[in-house]
Design a protein that fits this description.
Blueprint: E1 2-4, E2 10-14, E3 19-20, H1 28-43, E4 49-55, H2 61-72, E5 78-85, H3 101-104, H4 107-116, E6 118-121, E7 124-130, H5 133-142, H6 156-162, E8 169-174, H7 188-197, E9 198-206, H8 211-219, E10 223-229, E11 235-239, E12 252-258, H9 260-266
Helix pairs in contact: 1-2, 5-7, 7-8
Length: 280
């Protein structure tokens, strides 16, 4: 079922998860740009290589918006995006989906991803991984060697064929269905895998302010920051450092640390999310 959102862009309702892909009040395009794409590009603007994990591909807004925005801003580095997607039947429908005009410009990338699950052009590369995201990430972890010099590794072509990320992720779009609907992509164990797979300067963007999720991310080693913006609801940035991210964006009003240690001490009933349902 199509849903017209606040900014006139369209999203879909997922019958399996019983939730829309985007928040209708924020707008599908505005939510994507202001909660994920622009903060990530702003914080990593000087990076020569963006290694991006997009959880999950869904309607493709995050991936396509990143390609659009990087081109618009003349981003000079290389971008490699890895994105899991469990619903293979959704992909052919995307070719007739009514994307906003900004994303229609990425039609070549979309068609390639739908047909071959891969896209490469100039400095951009996108790999679509079909299957359960947790299993896909576990496969990344199993094949991960943080001591490998990826710039000099003679097996890069083999890695490309195996579709294994070549570098730790320095950008992660944490954008699955909500913790209430898709718990397995918000647990402590899940965030521990993200910690292993991410660079020290990683920027994780998410729309969710769920207390249990924040607790789980904190236990996994991440610091949380609340981002207050114009026109869209508050969102969260997770990093590996206690230094407050400096977002130089017109839409951003304030960014403040979320003191999880204090929240945990003040609320003994606060629980994290775990794979084995130890928390609530």
């Amino acid at each position: 079922m199509q849903i017209l959102t606040q900014d006139s862009s369209i999203t879909l309702y997922n019958e399996h998860f019983r939730e829309a892909y985007h928040n209708a009040n924020d707008g599908a395009l505005q939510e994507t740009l202001h909660k994920h794409i622009l903060p990530a590009l702003s914080l990593q603007t000087n990076m020569p290589y963006l290694s991006v994990l997009d959880i999950c591909f869904g309607l493709g807004f995050n991936t396509l918006c990143l390609l659009f925005a990087a081109r618009l801003q003349n981003f000079s580095g290389k971008i490699a995006i890895h994105s899991p997607e469990i619903d293979e039947r959704l992909l052919p429908r995307l070719l007739s989906f009514p994307y906003p005009k900004e994303l229609k410009s990425q039609r070549v990338a979309l068609e390639s991803l739908v047909k071959t699950h891969y896209f490469k052009e100039a400095n951009f590369e996108v790999v679509l991984h079909l299957g359960d995201a947790r299993e896909i990430l576990a496969g990344f972890v199993e094949n991960w060697n943080p001591k490998r010099d990826f710039q000099k590794d003679s097996n890069l072509q083999t890695q490309r064929e195996q579709r294994i990320p070549k570098m730790p992720f320095n950008v992660i779009f944490q954008d699955p269905f909500s913790p209430a609907k898709n718990r397995s992509l918000w647990t402590y164990e899940y965030f521990k895998n993200l910690y292993v797979l991410s660079a020290q300067n990683v920027v994780i963007t998410t729309y969710s302010l769920h207390s249990g999720m924040l607790y789980s991310a904190y236990l996994a080693g991440f610091y949380a920051y609340r981002v207050k913006q114009k026109r869209v609801r508050d969102s969260v940035i997770l990093t590996k450092t206690s230094e407050i991210p400096r977002l130089r964006l017109e839409n951003v009003l304030e960014i403040t640390p979320i003191n999880l240690a204090h929240k945990i001490k003040a609320n003994p009933n606060l629980w994290g999310l775990y794979d084995e349902n130890k928390g609530v």
